[in-house]
Amino acid sequence: MFILTKIADLVQIPPSQFEQHSRVAIENNINAKYANRVIQKIGLCVCMYDILWASEGLIGHGDGLVNVNVEFRMLVFRPFKGEILFGRISESNPEGIKIRTDFFEEITVSYKELPDDTEYDHNEKSWVWIVDEDRMHYDKNEVVRFQVQDETWNDQAPESGEEEAIERAKKVSPYTIQATMKNEGLGVCLWWD
Predict the structure, then answer these.
(1) Does residue 17 sit in helix, strand or coil?
(2) Which phi-psi region, left, alpha or beta, contains residue 187 (left: φ > 0; alpha: ψ -120 to 50)?
(3) What's the mean per-residue pLDDT of the chain?
(4) CA torsion 68→73→75→78, rounded to 10°?
(5) Which of 43, 24, 36 is nearest to 83 (CA)?
(6) Mean pLDDT of 71-77
(7) C-beta of residue 70 within 8 angstroms of C-beta of residue 110
(8) Which of 96, 136, 142, 170 could form a disulfide with 129 if both were Cys (CB 3.0 to 4.6 A apart)?
């Protein structure tokens, strides 16, 4: 679910942070730049893990910023295919179910990846699994167990500088996980406890 990724970058420390220890200032700047952001084909950055190497700081001409080349490791959320995770149902619609964790909300389960004999109840706005005449609901906020099937990456760079293209890029999630709840033991946790 979590991996460590090595990254090299230039960190710029403003004069307002000169009173901090250099390691603290570097860490704060790295976390401000990367935490809670998606790096394409790597995953969702959570926080800096450690600093592997840092150069001597060089003061930039005219701006007073200290430029430091840094190599560090970042803690990244990127579950592997086949991994089983827990989450909560955030939304149900005729296309499937959306699941969220405490820090990630872009997990989808298509209606095709729900168990056989599952149907959408338009009145309840939830999916129902029918087992031997029993109706078992996938209710909102229920804790579920799901298996990662695939991931989708969307480049956030707009095709052009037009306002419409920029707004369109903001609406598409940069990283989405497709999951399944079709196999035994997956689905609402209360069913299997």
Answers:
(1) helix
(2) left
(3) 91
(4) 110
(5) 43
(6) 97
(7) no
(8) 136
Q: Is the pTM value of this prediction over 0.70?
A: yes
Whether 100 contacts 48, CB under 8 Å: no
Return the DSSP state at 32: H
* SS3 labels along 94-154: CCEEEEECCCCCCEEEEHHHCCCCEEEECCCCEEEEEECCEEEEECCCCEEEEEEEEEEEC
**Amino acid identity for residue 34 in this structure:** Y
Q: Which residues contact 141 (CB under 8 A, 6 or more apart)?
A: 88, 89, 90
Dist. CA 1–CA 3, nearest whole Å: 7
**Which amino acid type is present at position 86?**
F
What dihedral angle (degrees, nearest 10) is formed by the CA atoms of 81, 84, 86, 91? 50
List the structure tokens of 24.
Answer: 């603290």
Tokens coding 122: 């338009």
> Confidence class of residue 172 from pLDDT cuts 50, 70 and 90?
confident
Give the Cα separation of 75 and 78 in Å (integer). Answer: 10
Q: How many CA atoms lie within 13 A of 51 on its CB side?
A: 19
Find out whether 148 and 177 touch, Cβ atoms under 8 Å: yes
Nearest CA among 127, 114, 109 for reference residue 179: 109
